[in-house]
């Protein structure tokens, strides 16, 4: 959610390189894998030189390497995207479960960014608003799966890359905008906003 355009670049360049290598190599899986790993390594070095956290950089590089190993193991070019499918399925499940458990992930992310820890959960209005906003993010992962799975099953390597690019930064930007509107409209009139959770007032004991 918070990776911005830099995160979108990390997510899209290796798959684009994979497809380009695969096509230029006359549908050679090794050519596609080599192009993807070299590109991911270049992106990782560039990010490290810019001072990004080594852990996040290495996780991104590791994901590409694992995707490449899966494709080489199965011998199918589309399996380079299998890790992505599983990741989106797991994300959709995690976001949906978080709402059911009344720990909506949108609230967790925004609350952490605002330094509120769990204080937002004591505000019933914010809890409800973040829950509704979290369903928007759940829908983005479900949408990706609805697009990716048929392409994966059909062996459409190039179409998978195009769909991944189209459903990365543009979809995240749309989800940010829509979930913001949903959260704001879910708050009652007079609510002080996301930065100021309102704890319910405890009932006062009656006269004895």
UniProtKB/TrEMBL annotation:
Q: What is this protein called?
A: DUF3159 domain-containing protein
Segments spanning the bilayer are 29-48, 55-72, 92-114, 135-153, 159-183
Organism's domain of life?
Bacteria
Q: Record's InterPro entries?
A: UCP010219
Ordered alphabetically, the record's keywords are: Membrane, Transmembrane, Transmembrane helix
Q: Which Pfam families match?
A: DUF3159
């Amino acid at each position: 959610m918070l990776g911005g355009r830099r995160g979108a670049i990390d997510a899209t360049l290796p798959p684009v390189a994979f497809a380009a290598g695969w096509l230029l190599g006359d549908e050679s899986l090794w050519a596609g894998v080599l192009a993807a790993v070299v590109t991911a390594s270049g992106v990782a070095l560039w990010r490290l030189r810019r001072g990004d956290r080594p852990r996040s950089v290495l996780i991104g590089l590791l994901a590409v390497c694992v995707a490449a190993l899966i494709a080489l193991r199965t011998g199918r070019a589309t399996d380079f995207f299998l890790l992505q499918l599983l990741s989106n399925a797991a994300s959709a499940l995690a976001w949906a479960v978080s709402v059911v458990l009344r720990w909506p992930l949108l609230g967790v992310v925004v609350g952490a960014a605002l330094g509120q820890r769990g204080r937002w959960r004591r505000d019933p209005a914010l809890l409800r608003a973040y829950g509704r906003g979290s369903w928007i993010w759940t829908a983005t992962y479900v949408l990706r799966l609805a697009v990716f799975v048929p392409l994966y099953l059909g062996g459409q390597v190039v179409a998978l890359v195009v769909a991944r690019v189209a459903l990365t930064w543009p979809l995240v930007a749309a989800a940010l905008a829509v979930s913001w509107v949903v959260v704001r409209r879910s708050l009652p009139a007079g609510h002080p906003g996301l930065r100021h959770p309102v704890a319910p007032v405890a009932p006062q004991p009656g006269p004895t």
